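Re: the 345-residue chain
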Amino acid sequence: MSLDTTFADARPRALQLLSVAAIATLALAACGGNEGAEAASADENSDNGDSGTVTIEDDHGSHEISTDELGSVGAFDNRLFRTLEDLDVELTVAPRALMREGVHGYAEDEDILDTGIHREPNLELIVAAEPDLVITGQRYMEYYDEMASLMPEDSTILQFDEALEADDFFTGLVDVTTTLGTIFDAEAEAQELTEALEEATERVEAAYDGESSVMGLVTSGGDINYAGPQSGRGVSPVFQEFGLVPALEVEDESSDHEGDDISVEAIADSNPDWILVLDRDGMNPDDPEYTTAQELIAESPALQQVSAIEEDQIVYMPQHMYLTEDIQAYTEFLNDFADALESAQ
């Protein structure tokens, strides 16, 4: 879409991030009504000493899961693939076509039935896998009802999209990661991931001055596009978490995966102090037509007078961020952002 641009006069908000300990307490406290995911309880099985049952809250309500009977697990939310890997979860069915070798360990596991990309998935493979638990969301969220109908009668399907909305995304990431740790008896591994994110978040909070203007951009197909502070792919959770001051605000910004149309002249006129970039095409770096975000932005003749480029204050998200968007990728990016902010002080 084309954008009518007006310069921003946004005031930063105070950052509030729940501590990992607080979230872990919530996740184990059996308190209802949370919009995110919570592991409510874990009862001891008196017969065999196994972990028993946990109560999980997701987008569709409350679910009782027997943690010692999870023989077959499917995963379809790309934001959780690497988290499940780090929790040492074995999958039987997943969209391996959405994964990349060298990024996802699951990508090379041919024992995992591959349902393919979300545009035309082969959901019948869920029937073959007979999963006890499926975790879905994001690109696959529209297939929730169909997937549920293909699963065994006593199985469970979970979806955490509400917990991972942009206005509280990082708290949601911690919450969902903690919940997965509870389900798969990997609390220590989950805590390691959440503590790393919390530390990176605290670094950015301490280093950002609350005044410097920031612009989000998405590069795709050789074009530079705008990613807004409310809905922009990849960057909007960062704007909202830290109260970043937008260099530019527009009407009707979208969450389009390629960003919104914007001219380099409008970018130059807004003169951001910082630029945050999601390189959409970075997921296919071997494509002969691929042009890196750095080439498109930092080397653009029309942008050479922009403050962020003159001061080398462009922070690029991890190369495969468009495919992952997970706690690991955001932890890496926030540490890179913190490094840059600290160096600029």
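Residues 225 and 263 are 8 Å apart (CA to CA).
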